[in-house]
Amino acid sequence: MSHKNQLQKLELTWIGKGEEPALEPRILIENPEYSYGDLNSENMLIHGDNLLALKALEQDYTGKIKCIYIDPPYNTGSAFEHYDDGIEHSLWLCLIRDRLKILNKLLAENGSIWISIDDNEFHYLKVLMDEIFGRNNFIANNVWQKIHSTKNDAKYLSVNHEYVLVYAKNYEKLILNLLPRSEEMDSRYKNPDNDPRGPWQSGDLVANEERTNGYYDVISPSGNIFNVPKGKHWVYAEDRMKQMILENRIWFGVKGDAFPRKKRFLSEVQEGRKGNTWWESKEVGHNQEAKREVKALNPKDIFGTPKPERLIERVLSLATNLGDLVLDSFLGSGTTAAVAHKMGRRWIGVELGEHAKTHCVPRLKQVVDGEQGGISKAVNWQGGGGFKFYTLAPSLLKQDKFGNWVISGEYNADMLAAAMAKQEGFKYQPHASIYWKQGQSSEQDFIFTTTHFLTVEALESIKEDMQAGETLLICCKSFQKECKDKYSNITIKKIPQMLLGRCEFGKEDYSLNIINMPANEQDSTDLTEEQSFRDEKVSVQEMLDKRKKEKKKRNDAPSLFD
User: Fold this and answer.
1) What would the DSSP string read from start to end of 421-468?
2) Does residue 210 share a domain with residue 161?
3) What transmembrane ranges does the database entry give (predicted)?
4) pTM of this prediction?
5) Separation between Cα atoms, residue 447 and residue 474, nearest integer Å
6) What is the number of domains present in the chain?
7) Burial class (CB in 10 A: 0-12, 13-18, 19+), 392
8) Looking at the DSSP assignment, which residues form a beta bridge with residue 68?
9) Does 24 fall in a domain?
10) Is residue 9 located within the same domain as residue 77?
11) Shared domain check, 58 and 12
């Protein structure tokens, strides 16, 4: 067993842990008004609560995401124009944990997750990641130089860095790519003897420890005799050294009389370089560069906390290859999607705020059209591709004026069929000619959802159409009592009774964007009652009390039939 697998498990405990919400699995609806480019594109921009969106992706994308990059709110207490960043510590942990648990499911076995964070929550996030992803799957903590000059107005120390925390889904299966060699690295290779094999640089031929067959004389072309000091040895055995001299792989200086060194040819070194954990701003960009990039794309409404495209390029260069699927569930201004698109990766981006439309859509349209900002020139981006814009369907059930749960009137027949398929774990794919085959969970197991009253005659007609070995689940609002248990291979359930108690219906927002209270009492008295209510900070205890009530409601509700 490896050392990593023997590491002791450590878990954080905080108020609210263990009270995770029972999420409703929603369907996604394309809004063609905001989709752009290639109509066959698999790229997805999802506008909606990111926790519900992740739940919506769970069925189809579990184990399929090669790389996840997220830049969640840092819980700094600083308010930004496009979202509010600063919530009670325990609540931040609750909300981020809910998301990480689903992200872990979505990640491929050979995939990795990269999280931007700063010192405010980094150490807690590290322990939380150990718990969810496994301490044995920790890869590295990269330090990003976000500011390239000292801030002399800092109260104590100028904080010039943030972190990018990295975990694998499976430590043994993760393979990170080499980074491209830099011009600086290649410039160290010269060709003073015009060797036809091209530029080279010299390397040491002497090792520190003594070896019996590593101590012998080496004669240079000028006749000088060289040997190693006592206690050391030549790297190569004598026969190998003679062969390398014949092949002109040993350098004795311009005059042929210098101490021998090995020639290392640029053409023979590995094509890239290992990544390291110190990410300098000159290589991956900095905050000011990021702001210039988004300002060039949207000068009238500049996103407050962007990341530079080169930072995301570093992540995707290490973690992905062409065609791999990338997910960012805190998309912000759209940087991850833009970079993934330019690098030939498929992508899914989720953003709750209106800037999904005001920032992400315009930016990604420009990318498709071939904009030349950010990394475009470095990767020779010429435009192309496209994306589809999706919104989360409304909650499937809502309460009527009497407090009864009913199917939302916003659902048409197709939406209801798709939603019920997702609820029951079926893949929604209506058959071209057989109306009751709306989805299937296996080759012979199907689901059919109807808003019509199900009669015995209708049931018999379906039964006659079924093949040997096929099974069917029928979801309907009501049915003739004689239908129940009439056929062993057909199960009938009533909507909405079959859904009650499963999850939280009617909730649209699980966001991290909790608004801070006014700075002092005087500010508070100036607010109207409506504003005060809207801006009230949600406490951890309030959140827990609400979740407990909802959980009790679900447990007390009927789960199958009236």
Assistant:
1) HHHTT-EE---SS-TT--EEEETTEEEEEESSPBPHHHHHHHHHHPPT
2) no
3) none
4) 0.79
5) 6
6) 4
7) buried
8) 113, 327
9) no
10) yes
11) yes
Q: Identify the CA nearest to 284 among candidates 159, 147, 167.
A: 147
Q: Where among 392, 425, 444 does a domain terminate? A: 392
DSSP state of 166: E
* Dihedral over Cα of 176, 177, 178, 180: its sign: negative
In a domain, 533, yes or no: yes
Integer angstrom CA distances of residue 495 from 56, 369, 478: 20, 46, 8
Output the CA torsion sign for 23, 28, 34, 39. Answer: positive
Q: Tens-digit pLDDT profile for the chain (562 aa)?
A: 444 444 455 677 777 777 778 999 999 999 999 999 998 999 999 999 999 999 999 999 999 999 999 998 876 554 334 444 445 667 778 888 999 999 999 999 999 999 999 998 899 899 999 999 999 999 999 999 999 888 888 889 989 999 999 999 999 999 999 998 877 888 889 999 999 999 999 999 998 876 667 788 999 999 999 998 888 889 898 999 999 999 999 999 999 999 999 999 988 887 788 999 999 999 998 888 878 887 777 776 666 568 999 999 999 999 999 999 999 999 988 999 999 999 999 999 999 878 899 889 999 999 999 999 999 999 999 999 999 999 999 999 999 999 999 999 999 999 999 999 999 999 999 999 999 999 999 999 999 999 999 999 999 999 999 999 999 999 999 999 999 999 999 999 999 999 998 999 998 888 754 333 333 433 333 333 333 333 333 444 555 566 566 556 555 544 333 3
Q: Last residue of a domain, which of 225, 243, 268?
A: 268
Say which CATH number the domain at 82 has. 3.40.50.150
Nearest residue to 461 (alpha-carbon basis) of 469, 472, 451? 472
262 with 279, same domain? no
Structural tokens at position 213: 């067959």
Q: Are 437 and 313 in a shared domain?
A: no
Strand 65-70 and strand 325-328: the pairing is parallel
Q: Is residue 191 one of the residues assigned to a domain?
A: yes
Do residue 315 and residue 166 come from a single domain?
yes
Q: 500-509 burial, b for 16+ CB within 10 Å, e for fewer?
A: bbbbbbebee
> Cα–Cα distances in Å, from 489 out to 231, 282, 483, 492?
83, 65, 12, 10
> What is the rounded CA–CA span in Å between residue 520 and residue 35?
45
Which pair of tokens denotes residue 237? 């055995």
Per-residue exposure over 39-55, b if at least 16 CB sit within 10 Å of its own CB, e if not: eebebbbbbbbbbbbbb
Q: Among 294, 312, 313, 311, which Cα is nearest to 303's?
A: 294
76 touches 121 (CB < 8 A): no
Tokens of 113: 């997750």
CA distance 106 to 108: 7
Asked if residue 471 lies in contact with residue 490, where contact means CB atoms within 8 angstroms, the answer is: yes
DSSP state of 259: P
Using a 10 angstrom Cβ sphere, with 0-12 exposed, 13-18 middle and 19 or more buried, the burial of residue 429 is exposed
CATH number for the domain including 480? 3.40.1350
**Residue 450 sits in which domain range?**
397-499
283 and 349 assigned to the same domain: yes
